Amino acid sequence: MSRPEVLYPLFADLTRLTGIGPKTARSLEQIGVTHPRDVLLTLPYAGIDRQLRTSVLDVALPTTLTVAAKIGPHRSPTNKGGAYRVHAEDAKTTFQIVYFHARADYLKRILPEGSRRILSGKVELFDSIAQMIHPEHVVEEAAASDIPTFEPIYPLTAGVTQKTMFKATRSALQMVPDLVEWIDPAQKDQADWPSFSEALQGAHSPTTQDDLATTASARERLAYDELMAHQLTLALARAHVRGGTGMRTEGDGHFRERVIANLPYKPTRAQNRAIDEIAEDMAGPQRMNRLLQGDVGSGKTLVALLAMLIAVEAGGQAVMMAPTEILARQHLEGLQPLAMDAGVCLDLLTGRDKGQERRRKLDALERGEIDVLVGTHAVFQSDVAFADLRLAIVDEQHRFGVRQRLALGEKGRRADVLVMTATPIPRSLALAQYGDMDVSVLDEKPPGRKPIRTALVSSERIEEVLERLRVNIADDRQCYWVCPLVEESEVVDLTAAEERYKRLRAALGAHNVGLVHGQMAPGEKDAAMARFQAGDTKILVATTVIEVGVNVPNATIMVIERAERFGLAQLHQLRGRVGRGEMASTCLLMYQAPLSERGRQRLEVLRETEDGFVIAETDLRMRGYGDLIGTAQSGVPRFRVADIERQSALMAIAQSDARRLLADDPSLKSARGQAARILLWLMRQDEAIRFINVG
Ligand code: ADP
Ligand code: MG
């Protein structure tokens, strides 16, 4: 499918716009503005009042103002670099127009002595004389209307001026076609929104400060259009996954009962609720596409196991993918005994399985002899075939975007999909990131968890910290030591980690200290982890590879160096590695003094709460969404107009609107459906078009 013709003008070359030549076009490309469409969606962020005043005395100075004046004599600078002054007289007083480094002949031409001009620019008092410095507008009185009474101010990039942007937006506005409305009429009426083209006109022609607010109806409508396009993409992806021939997977519960009977504890209410929701989805005719969200330690693994057993009870298979080798192995170790007791065959497949061994596993899998496969992304390689795959689980995939999820869904054509994440994200972000999925939340932790004491310590007090570790080692307890995140580069982090490792070995005894980092050979990494898990090493120095999921109940201290450099959510995840056993645990957030006030406040949030949601919300508030979203990693798109922090309610409306539209018109054939296709093209969501149900 190709772009609809009515949108051609909006996707034409930038140079088609008045005032934009190849050079300006290249500058605009730097800020992602490549077509008239982008110019239109680059909205002014401020405005300058340029209403005509009678005199510079009418407004409190300094300020930007517009005034009509009679031009008097010119005076060239008396010294090099001095000011060029032009005398001027408005209805009440005289003032000076001031230029630096100006060309006299040019100024004489635009400001001829004895003429009348409308001038607009910043006026300030200097030695009690009002001065207008480098006026932004100088026009003849007859052309007064050339100066907008409220001038929109655009975000700029080097090489592009406000005037250029103004002219370009005006000419782009003339290219906007009349489009059939895609918004639900009831929604549009209720919100009292203008049409798309009126909204663009309005957003680019503010007349007051209020028109610049996100709640101004023109801007709100455009924001909604962006959110709607995004949610429509998610809804299409969702329909794509759920649609087609789903399988009804229902178990009789016998494996689940056996596993639960063998557990030393009872599932929490939240775990039971999540399992019920999953079981219901799996039993339904549509494919499951569900997110299981639960803070660290909330017990997602048990939910995953029980879900996989449903698949096995139904005579099928299940697969669970972990993000790292370490975690895959840990899942194997945790789950295999439970599976074995129940009589279920569970095996591991990772990139390290090679040759014969790998072949053997693949054959067993294809014959259906392996019921549950656990592994890394190796489990989704093209030659891995299942006899009857019913359920695919992805653990800790908060770094996955909707595209990757779709790719994964494509693997097991009809298998149900469950994604698990430990990142507690605020609702607005969840909607943006996981709007295609149904969500189950584990909002309750297993009982009996000891609170973790969290303290802030300056790195100058490292000796005291080491002393604590000595006591800890003597008590036969263990400790994680996470090294600073110096840069986004594992290599740089590594040097820091190796350095720390050496020093801790010297201070605490070489045999007590282990090291694990992302650059280690796989076997070495496992061995280091295994030694720590067995309690042979007491201190594990690590880069953030231990961030997700590692479980060592005997570890009771978590030291995080340069904690001020980590995100709060990440610190929370790291802290979740301790407090898993019977003993009280401590998390020491080591910072490099001096810590800024804000930095301290941030870290104190962790001291005050262990609630991942509170931490995530606070983190977001303090850092702003900008930091979190828009990065390829987060899976959250960057919007040009919409502000998902403040417009999460709109996002929710867009989600239900998009889902309803697709339910009524799955192939987007109705008039509104066709209009929605245009919206997708317009908002560059054309990849979504391929998911439109052709049936
Ligand atoms: P996460 O959600 O971080 O993946 P895990 O599944 O690793 O959490 O569970 C953390 C710990 O809690 C594990 O040691 C697990 O055995 C234990 N656990 C899970 N469910 C319960 C429960 N209902 N009661 C007590 N302990 C539980
Ligand atoms: Mg886990």
- Percent helix among the residues? 25-40%
Shape: globular
Taking all Cα atoms into account, the compactness measure Rg is: 32 Å
CATH architecture of the largest domain: 3-Layer(aba) Sandwich
Described by strand count, sense and barrel closure, the largest sheet is: 7 strands, parallel
Strand order in space, largest sheet: 11-12-10-13-14-9-15
User: What is the strand tally?
Assistant: 21
Terminal residue distance: 16 Å
What portion of the residues fall into strands of 2 or more residues? 15-25%
Weakly predicted, low-confidence segments: 626-634
Question: What would the CATH topology of the largest domain be?
Answer: Rossmann fold
What would your notes on this structure say?
The protein has 695 residues and is α/β, with parallel strands linked by helices. It folds into 5 domains: 5-46 and 155-212, no CATH class; 51-147, Nucleic acid-binding proteins (OB fold (Dihydrolipoamide Acetyltransferase, E2P)); 222-243 and 650-691, no CATH class; 254-442, Rossmann fold; 452-609, P-loop containing nucleotide triphosphate hydrolases (Rossmann fold, 3-Layer(aba) Sandwich). The protein has 23 helices and 21 strands. The strands form 4 sheets. Strands 11-12-10-13-14-9-15 form a 7-stranded parallel beta sheet, sandwiched between helices. Strand 18, helix 17 (522-533) and strand 19 form a beta-alpha-beta unit. Helix 8 (254-262) packs across helix 11 (325-342) and helix 14 (427-434) runs parallel beside helix 22 (648-664). The longest helix is centred in the first third of the chain and has 26 residues, at 217-242.
